[in-house]
Each structure stands twice: as structure tokens, then as C-alpha cells.
Write a structure and sequence with these properties.
Blueprint (H helix, E strand, L loop, with lengths): L40 H8 L4 H4 L12 E5 L14 E5 H6 L4 H4 L3 H5 L3 H16 L5
Antiparallel strand pairs: 1-2
Length: 138
């Protein structure tokens, strides 16, 4: 007397004409433009060539900048999302991520602690970039 049914085997995958397993289909190219914030590699490269806004500030006279210049995304955004590349400012690695008073550690309080106006800085660097590529007002 049998207590269980015999195992059912799944059929083998169909193979191509050459005897090898069939290949997976190629993904289609995107037909619609990607969603999300604006990305601009040239603008990020321009930002990385500037001075750190904390170390460069004449009012603070600070020289504790550390590391290379990074493009810090500082625009308003949703939780776990990155803002547009045009909403960046140049910060050294220390003021961006490493120091205790860095943008990543302080979050929204970063602007008050350092006495900076985020919107004004983003506008200044955007205008400098447009002047550099020849789209300025002049």
C-alpha cells in the first residue's frame, strides 16, 4: 500500500536549434523619458571645480576643509530621494559627510549652524554655470 503520490517532474526547457538552452530576450529600450529629478553631469563637474562654500566664506575664516570637493545635493526632496543636480553646492568631503558639523550629520540644521542661505547659494552657482557655458545675461 502506497502512502504518497509519486513526484511529478517539470518538463525540460525547450532548447534552441543548436541544442543549447534558449537565450533570454533582449530588454527593450526606454520609450518614455526617465522619471525623476534632472541629471546633468556637466553641471556636477562644474560644481566640483569650485571652492567649498564653508571654507571659502570670508565671514567664517575657516580652514578646516578636508578632502576633495563634492557636489552636495541640497534641494528640497522627498524621503529617500535625491534632488535635481542643479540643486547642488560645492562642499569639501569634511563639510559634506565627515565632520560632526557636516551636512549629512546636521541635516536641516546645517544651514543655521553655518549661517548660510541655501536658495541663494544654489542660485549663485546656477548663474555662474550659465555664464561659464555662455547662456548668461551678459
Amino acid at each position: 500500500m502506497r502512502l504518497h503520490k509519486p513526484l511529478k517532474r517539470t518538463p525540460l526547457k525547450k532548447q534552441g536549434w543548436s541544442g543549447r538552452a534558449a537565450r533570454t530576450p533582449i530588454k527593450k529600450r526606454r520609450t518614455k523619458p526617465r522619471r525623476g529629478p534632472l541629471r546633468d553631469k556637466n553641471y556636477l563637474a562644474f560644481i566640483r571645480q569650485q571652492e567649498c562654500v564653508i571654507g571659502y566664506s570670508a565671514a567664517l575664516l575657516r580652514t578646516d576643509c578636508r578632502g576633495r570637493i563634492e557636489a552636495a545635493h541640497v534641494g528640497l526632496r522627498g524621503l529617500s530621494q535625491k534632488s535635481s543636480d542643479h540643486q547642488t553646492i560645492p562642499l569639501c568631503a569634511g563639510h559634506h559627510r565627515i565632520h560632526t558639523d557636516s551636512q549629512h550629520n546636521l541635516g536641516k540644521n546645517f544651514w543655521e549652524v553655518h549661517g548660510l542661505n541655501r536658495d541663494r547659494l544654489m542660485r549663485i552657482f546656477r548663474e555662474r554655470y550659465l555664464d561659464a557655458i555662455g547662456f548668461g545675461n551678459g
